[in-house]
Design a protein that fits this description.
Pfam families: TctC
Protein name: Tripartite tricarboxylate transporter substrate binding protein
CATH class of the largest domain: Alpha Beta
Number of domains: 2
Largest sheet: 9 strands, mixed
CATH superfamily of the largest domain: Bordetella uptake gene, domain 1
Structural class: alpha/beta
Family: Belongs to the UPF0065 (bug) family.
CATH architecture of the largest domain: 3-Layer(aba) Sandwich
InterPro entries: BUG, Bug_dom1
Radius of gyration: 21 Å
Mean pLDDT: 91
Signal peptide: 1-22
Helix content: 40-55%
């Protein structure tokens, strides 16, 4: 009797397994949405649209971008974490939503690292420290000297509290011993307009979303936050060259899905992302924006396993930065 009851209890799962495998094999057979947890025009949005176009081509189904901004990327990320784990809702994860926010928001985080599964890293990009053209500084040292002479009078903008841009600004203030008022925006687009207009004097942004304004002379670059200069702006020094080696930060962007998404779908997405970022057309677009390839696998690509390990390391790294800087969000 016990043996019979055990078989009856297991029957639904046994029957469901072939159906699930068949569903995985047929994926995708309809439109996929790629959720961007920030407003349009920022680096996350730009990267997502490049990847969506290539995945549409490779998967044979439309991949459409959907912007769900708020709380430093938490709103859109939480939406994906709680979505059906069927491979039709993807997240354009960032260093903030996938790394920084777990420490910065603490118990207020609406989702946990284990609620999302990694598929693949698309690119890494430098952050750029820049100023409005009306501010009388042309180097990072001159900015620090100006801030010291005018404590608390400068506003520094970012695309949102908890982003790597916010934390880079906090690092600069901590390392240089200066005071500036952080002004978070709901995305890079509105923040950049305020800096161009001169209402925000200093800002940090991911290179891809600000590089057009730099090249057109609407904003003045001071330093990139990576160890090496970027070929996209070869005349702009690194923070180390400018005298502040501890102000180092690299932003990243990749795909995550709800944690219970079937592994065959995750593996397929990982393969397609890896192939897409290695395409000459995609590599050229990334390079033009000042971005760097994933670089997680020996051939410079990405995989679900390497991206998962990368995210875990980033959570630990940025947790230490949050602790040392004392950064908070309201």
């Amino acid at each position: 009797m016990l043996h019979r009851r055990t078989l009856l209890a297991a029957a639904p799962a046994l029957l469901a397994a072939p159906a699930l495998r068949a569903q995985d094999a047929n994926w995708p057979n309809r439109t996929i949405r790629l959720v961007v947890p920030f407003t349009p025009a920022g680096t996350t949005d730009i990267a997502a649209r490049i990847l969506a176009e290539r995945l549409t081509h490779r998967l044979g189904q439309h991949v459409v971008v959907e912007n769900r901004a708020g709380a430093g990327g938490n709103v859109g990320s939480d939406f994906v974490a709680k979505s059906e784990p069927d491979g039709y809702t993807l997240l354009m994860a960032t260093v903030s939503s996938g790394g920084i926010n777990y420490s910065l928001y603490g118990s207020r985080m609406p989702y946990k690292p284990e609620d999302l599964a990694a598929c693949g890293l698309m690119l890494q990009v430098p952050n750029l420290i820049f100023v409005t053209n009306s501010l009388p500084v042309r180097t990072l040292k001159e900015l620090v000297d100006y801030a010291r002479a005018n404590p608390g009078k400068l506003n520094n903008g970012s695309s949102g509290a908890g982003t790597s841009l916010h934390l880079t600004g906090e690092l600069l203030k901590t390392v240089a011993g200066i005071q500036m008022q952080h002004v978070p925006f709901r995305g890079a687009g509105p923040m950049l307009q305020e800096v161009i207009a001169g209402r925000i004097e200093v800002a940090v942004d991911n290179l891809p979303s600000v590089i057009g304004h730099i090249r057109d002379g609407r904003l003045r670059p001071l330093a990139v936050t990576t160890k090496q200069r970027t070929p996209a702006l070869p005349d702009v020094p690194t923070t180390a060259e400018a005298g502040f080696p501890d102000v180092e930060a690299t932003a990243w962007f990749g795909i995550q899905v709800p944690a219970r998404t079937p592994r065959p779908i995750i593996e397929r997405l990982g393969r397609e992302i890896d192939a897409a970022v290695k395409e000459p057309e995609t590599k050229a677009k990334i390079a033009d924006l000042g971005g760097m390839p994933p670089g997680l696998t020996p051939d410079g690509g990405t995989s679900p396993e390497t991206f998962e390990a990368f995210i875990k390391a980033e959570i630990a790294k940025w947790g230490e930065v949050v602790r040392k800087s004392g950064a908070t969000v309201e």
